[in-house]
Olfactory receptor
Amino acid sequence: MGNLTTIKEFLLLGFGSLHGLQFFLFGIFLGMYVVTLLGNLLILIVISLDRNLQIPMYFFLSNFSFLEIWYTTSIAPKMLQTLLFGPKVISFVGCVVQFYFFGSMAVVECFLLTAMSYDRYLAICSPLQYPSLMNLHTCVLLAGGSWLGGFLTPVVTVAMTFQLPFCATYKIDHFFCDLAPVLKLACSDTETVEKTTFLLASFVTMVPFLLTVASYMHIVAAVLRIPSAAGKQRAFATCSSHLTVVTLYYGALGTVYAIPSATQTAVLNKIFSLFYTVVTPMVNPIVYSLRNKDVQKAVRQLMSQWASAKGSSGTPPPPGSLFVLRTAWASMKDAKH
């Protein structure tokens, strides 16, 4: 029997034998990762440079885009290595750090989505009081609370999980250090860890989810009271992107956790994990950029301003920002098609 002091590293088995498909999948997942990074960088750059977008709704969106970059970065690089080179060694400390940061980012996402739904609730249901209610102090408090809560929540689970004694085998049948495959390596009873994790996970997902549902119930009721069809369409348009992202995120979580872990095969678990670690983070910036007229307008204006500035002064605009802006916008359009 091994223990905490003898286990120095783990072996991530990745996707196993792919019969020659690993390079094809590597190209696909690398492309998705690049689109995720560029798409979220596009949103961050546009919001920071366009004063018209420096309002509470886009303040939360910039936090969300920043989160998505780190959320997928905590998983994707090591996953791509396992695809390209096969099973990959990860140190014990590296596994702990990956486990912790991935869990933290997932919790922050739940909290931020709830804060964004509350922002839309106030904007639609209390438009006259909205500027005073959703002021800078409130925005910072909601965003800061989301980040702080996200980083504190997984501490208990991480500490309990990695204090368990591990058996001689150190092979994790996954492409990252997720809870279920790590617990399978433990030599002792993991019931306490599983129950504690279940309670914490239920709280940090169900409470934000119910608050989000409650916000949208009030939003729908308020929109239905708007007499004109055009007014209803405008009101729904302000929250359609957020509602799409919420549906994707909680739909993915529901699919993963609705099936008992005991009945999930390793392959099924990896497929589900791919959806909420790679696919969803890629789709989110596409939804918020290509389906958001304000962001589209801001991108066009910024590119036009840069082009005009270059033509009038002969001095090229900042190359890094322009390259990211153009490349990200092209990537978003290609990904949509």
